[in-house]
Amino acid sequence: MTGNERLSRTRRFSAWTTRRWLRAGVAAALVVLALLGATGAWVLGRTASISNDLVDVKSPALTTSYRLESALLNQETGIRGYGLTGTPEFLDPYRQGLTEEQTHTARLAALLQGDRAALADLNEVQDAIEGWQLTIARPVATSPAGAPSPLATAHASEGKAAFDTLRAAMIDQQDRLRADRTQAREDLAATMGLRNWVFTTIAAVIVLLAALVFEALRRGVTTPLEQLGSDARTIAGGDFDHPITPTGPADLRRLSGEIDFMRRRLVRELAFTEEARLRLDAQAADLQRSNAELEQFAYVASHDLQEPLRKVSSFTQLLQRRYGGQLDTKADQYIDFAVDGANRMQTLINDLLAFSRVGRVHHELQDVDLDKTLERTLSALSVGIEETGAVITHDPLPTIAADPTQMGMLWQNLIGNAVKFHRPGVAPTIHVSADREGALWRFTVTDNGIGIATEFAEKVFVIFQRLHTKDTYSGSGIGLAMCKKIVEFHGGTIAIDPDYRDGARITFTLDPEAPQNPSPSLLPEATRADAEPTP
Predict the structure, then answer these.
(1) Phi/psi at 447 (nearest 5 deg)?
(2) Residue 198, number of CB atoms within 10 A of its CB
């Protein structure tokens, strides 16, 4: 066989799947077992045939020949005694021998059926018997009783010779039958030895097949699966760069290849995910730093703007008091514009300063009774409530861990907006409800005011975003943005209910427990103390 032929055969076998190897192995084992079974069956049949022939033919034939010889001896003894004495009692053994002779002869003929040599010997014995009977036995038996038979004396030597011939034929027959029985015994012993060897071989082949099946399963199935499982466990342990080596039949190698392909794909996905995570972490860090810088800038800028703005406001007010009415109308109008602008700027800066302080200065959390906080807020807003005739109701409110100052700011902005943005000519009706929702409390502030359009549901929570001009409704546009910042600082969310059409409904959630990571101050305590606005 050339090298190319061996390579082609190796490739052909390497393409076999586990099922094909199992089919081939089972088929080969069945063929071998069938051959061994057929051989064993033949050996068993042969053993049974020889044993039956020995037991049922050879041994009975020899025994019957001995009995036939005994019957003939009885006949010869009876004829000789009757011939010498003429006593009738001597004919009894003769007659019994005749009966036994017929029986044994028929038995031998039946046993030796198909054995030409043995039947030829039986014929010679029968011919010798017939010759002795004609010559001696019958004539003597038919002679008168009471006196010795003259034939017995006259033909004594002839009778002896005839019976010797008969005995010689019997001996030849018995020698042949004895030889046949001996040969049958030898054949039986040889066949039994062959039977033992065949069944020993069958047992050895079965053991060998079992060993081959076990080894084939170990090499072709269990070992590749164990290797695959070991590789999979190594990968599952975190070593994603560990390759999976394909082994075993074609289908197991294909499975290993598919799993390795999945591993490589996961490696690529993990690398991409890790790269994206690193980019997101970097962006989050940049965004957090940017937000922190913006918050610190807003805090510092709003604080630093207080002093020059107070000077501008003070001097414009002095101008208004001292020179009001002394200049022309235009000058008075310009002074009024300057004073109003300075006041609005002062309000805007104060709101911006308060917004920047949420989560920075007031973050000492304690148990806050929201019922009492709401009552204090309503007391602070009593003037506006009385002017508009507002009716404010609320459900029992819980006690939560929160910043009391910020909770006051939250209620003040929400209730203040509900009172401020009422419908003209309609007294505001405001209701505050609270319901437990899982681990959080959900609060709802509902009013019958002008409402908020759905398209502005997100915009209203952005700082400085106003839906109305300052001439229509006063304010800086920072109230709901501050509410959102306070709620998120306390682990909740806030939103406008878009399904409510009879006014505005604002819902928000608060965590009754202290937030896990409350926003820390970005300014040191000393800096924050210095940054407090001057009264």
Answers:
(1) -135, 170
(2) 18
